[in-house]
Amino acid sequence: MVDLNHRLLGILARLGFKPGFGETTVAESCSRYGINLPTFLMICNVYSSEEFIPAEEDLREIDIMAVVRYLRASHRYYVNKGLVCLSDQLEQVLEPCGEKPKKVIRSFFGQYKTELEKHFEYEERQVFPYVQALSAGDGSVRDDLRQVEDDHGNIEEKVDDLKNIILKYLPAECDIVGVADVLTFIYNLAEDLKYHTRIEDIILAPLITKLEEDGNDR
Amino acid sequence: MTGKKEVLIVTPSVLIAKGVESILNDMGEFRVSGILTDLGRGNELRLKNMDPDVILLDPSVLGSDARGTGKSYFADFSDAPVLALVTSVSSEETLRPYDGSVTVFDAPNVLVKKLRSALETRTDSPKSEGGELSSREKEILICVAKGMLNKEIADLYNLSVYTVITHRKNITRKTGIKTVAGLTVYALLNNLIDINSVE
């Protein structure tokens, strides 16, 4: 399965799966690592096709807390690994440049990083606990999640800009091999972030709405 | 030039090609500039010399392995929109790589409408990204990079806010950069502004 789409490897790692699957089935692995099968498959589906939209009846089988666990793990990956790697690669590329471009690009990247981290933090502090409360049947809390969608748009624009700046406007003395590496990395990261966002938008958001409606009915 | 838009038809069926040609002749607006019955080697050269506005391609001309790639076949010759000319039952999958599709069951006015809309979408999207910024665009970019608001920029240059917004859209289209922070980086790297003026 992973062979079909290497992006799925990232998902496995974030869910705490260990290598060496041998002949174990997907279902066996899922139960071993404590994630319910439909949830796992749906996350994989999102990563596999841009057009995937979950059916309503499939959403009913989803363990919302497993989705949240996945998103948290995914955030940790971006903060501890993705952004750190990107920053290192960027430094390498900028090495031969003058002080000014270094300073300018570092500061732009720094802004992007801070924004992303702040957004993650908001989700972890506000959104996820809210989901937890809802799924525990506590209808007394209410939250406005529109902010989250706005943030997603901004974050995508920024990563696009970073890509274009590196692609088009870096000073000539930069290390070209490094530039190619950084760009590949950014493309991958941006794509991964896009799928991550889609999980929030097409799985988490409708589930939250559903839970809220259920809460109102009661 | 008659002012009519030129259509290239690629289909193994002369009957269908002639039919479409006759309909388009009756309707005006479009003119069939060429009919190819296959995409063999000899025709590649002919393709290079034609410059159609729209291409109608019957997916069955392509081998089954290339059916899905239909549109990209023409990328080397022409940037005209490529519509699938559907003569038999086709899966959605097959039609996805095209800019649209017409079927042999479409009424003449539907056919023309579809051709027209394919052309419109194409002209809407800017042909070339990039391109030099005009001097006015540079001035405005500098203001944006310094953190000025649209209203402030409009007042400074005696423009309407609407004009400023149009300039900003063009700047973004040409540079590929959307955010203010990104535009600031662009301005700094291109020495349009001094680093001290943003701090």
- Uncertain regions of chain B: pLDDT < 50 for 5+ in a row? 125-129
Morphology of chain B: elongated
CATH C-level name of the largest domain in chain B: Alpha Beta
Strand order of the largest sheet of chain B: 2-1-3-4-5
Give the CA-CA distance, first to last residue of chain A.
Answer: 42 Å
Tell me the total number of β-strands of chain A: 0
Strand content of chain A: under 5%
Distance between the termini of chain B: 57 Å
What is the fold-level CATH name, i.e. the topology of the largest domain in chain B?
Rossmann fold
Q: Classify the beta-strand content of chain B into a percent band.
A: 5-15%
Helix share, percent of chain B: 40-55%
What oligomeric arrangement do these chains adopt?
heterodimer
Number of helices of chain B: 8
Number of extended strands of chain B = 5
Structural class of chain A: mainly alpha
Evaluate the radius of gyration of chain B.
Answer: 23 Å
Tally of structural domains of chain B: 2
Task: Please tag this protein with its features.
heterodimer, A: 218 residues, 2 domains, B: 199 residues, alpha/beta, Rossmann fold, Arc Repressor Mutant, subunit A, 44% helix, elongated
